[in-house]
Amino acid sequence: WYQRRVRGTNVVRVLTQLRAKHANEAKCTWGIDGTTGVMTDMKDLGIWEPYTVKTQTYKTAVEAACMILRIDDIVSGIKHGQKQG
User: Are 22 and 16 in contact (CB under 8 A)?
Assistant: First the structure.
């Protein structure tokens, strides 16, 4: 659906402009409007990505990775036990 919305815009050009804006401004709040495909100040649209959302995302990713490693250890232990038995 995203490509349908921004079909009329030059995506590479808009992303390059956005990266340049972020590189030149210390507290840049610019992003790409998903409905129009143009650069917009997200503060004006009322869109915020708080620090707490980012930290919770990292915590959830670490928890998921630890769970996968635990499951892998259990499966490896079961396979190792079956080979010896």
Answer: no
Other residues' Cβ atoms within 10 Å of the Cβ of residue 24 = 8
What long-range pairs does 14-17 form, CB within 8 A, spacing at least 24?
A: 14/38, 14/39
Give 19's pLDDT tier (boundaries 50, 70, 90).
very high
- List Cβ neighbours of 14 (8 Å cut-off, separation of 6 or more): 6, 32, 37, 38, 39
In the three-class reduction of DSSP (H, G, I as helix; E, B as strand; rest coil), residue 31 is classed as: strand
Long-range contacts of 8-14, Cβ-Cβ distance < 8 Å, separation of 24 or more: 8/37, 9/37, 9/38, 11/37, 14/38, 14/39
CA dist., res. 4 & res. 67, Å (int): 38
Whether the predicted model's global pTM rises above the 0.85 cut: no
Reduce the DSSP state of residue 6 to 3 states and report it: coil
